[in-house]
Design brief:
about 290 residues, eight-stranded antiparallel β-sheet, six-stranded mixed β-sheet, 8 helices, 16 strands, about 30% helix, elongated
């Protein structure tokens, strides 16, 4: 009898465990992929004014002609016709079940999607390659630069003309940060014969009608608070022209730029950091002579 009762309690405990587990998984399935990571996501309070996009999770039942979205408020799934969007290459990213996505419905027909963006795939670290230019005197022409380049020894070019990786990381809760800083002594950098393009200081990102809005500014040390404040913030609005696997193409004001995904932050600018350290060490050796 005691064995029967013990077995019964074990069965009931297991049954309760699976009920609780099921509830947890159900709640998690409704909230997986939320960008803000708080209850504001469910009320759309984080959306920018005028944003017509509907945000939610990819549901089962998606095909090349239909996209099924579970809104973030866990209301009934919505099916969108995406035949035209596919033809116009406006289905950006390969959405898997449970991925966080944005769907921009047509203004003429709310059942038709103009644009679908996989935001989970958009998140991550994106880089592109930059090269330095010669540090020229004011008034120097492109012809002067070309002449100096032709006269420069190959050993100097190998030392200073090192490609760098620039870019940004898009993270949870709409946070962003810059990618591409190279550890280098300021004095040595100022005396270098080459100069690299300015690296923007990114702070956050948003979506608006399927466009990426990324914010950058100027960091300024707040001595009282012992932290950096960001001043002169401005927004760059970019069309997402291509997004698939490890490739991203953004367009803004008639110009386009391609990015590649970087999965290992410790590897970013590894060669450039090594070159900077080498130049720094050479400068120290010269001082010791």
């Amino acid at each position: 009898m005691h064995g029967y009762i013990n077995s019964f309690h074990i069965i009931m405990n297991k049954f309760s465990f699976f009920i609780i587990l099921g509830i947890v998984l159900l709640v998690a399935s409704c909230h997986k992929g939320e960008a803000p990571g708080n209850d504001a996501a469910l009320s759309d309070e984080w959306k920018l004014p005028g944003d017509r996009a509907i945000y939610g999770l990819t549901c089962d039942g998606c095909t090349d002609s239909v996209f099924v979205l579970l809104p973030l408020d866990c209301s009934d799934p919505i099916s969108f016709n995406i035949i035209k969007a596919h033809k116009q290459k406006k289905v950006l990213g390969h959405a898997k079940i449970g991925d966080w996505v944005a769907v921009v419905p047509s203004e003429e027909d709310s059942t038709v999607a103009e644009l679908v963006v996989n935001l989970d795939e958009l998140k991550g670290t994106w880089c592109y390659i930059v090269m330095p230019r010669l540090r020229m005197a004011p008034g120097a022409t492109a012809k002067d630069e070309a002449r100096m380049m032709s006269e420069m020894p190959d050993s100097v070019k190998e030392t200073y003309f090192i490609p760098r990786e620039y870019g940004f990381a898009l993270k949870q809760q709409w946070q962003a940060h810059s990618v591409g800083y190279v550890r280098q002594n300021t004095t040595i950098e100022d005396e270098s014969p080459v100069v690299y393009p300015r690296l923007a200081y990114f702070t956050k990102w948003k979506m608006w009608n399927g466009k990426l809005i990324i914010t950058s500014g100027e960091p300024m040390m707040n001595e009282e608070a012992k932290k950096f404040d960001v001043i002169n913030e401005h927004n760059d609005t970019c069309d997402i022209l291509y997004l698939m696997n490890d490739s991203l193409v953004l367009g803004s004001e008639g110009a386009t730029r391609g990015y590649y995904r970087h999965n290992n932050m410790s590897e970013v600018n590894k060669e450039a950091n090594a070159a900077a350290e080498k130049i720094h060490q050479q400068a120290l050796d010269e001082l010791k002579k």
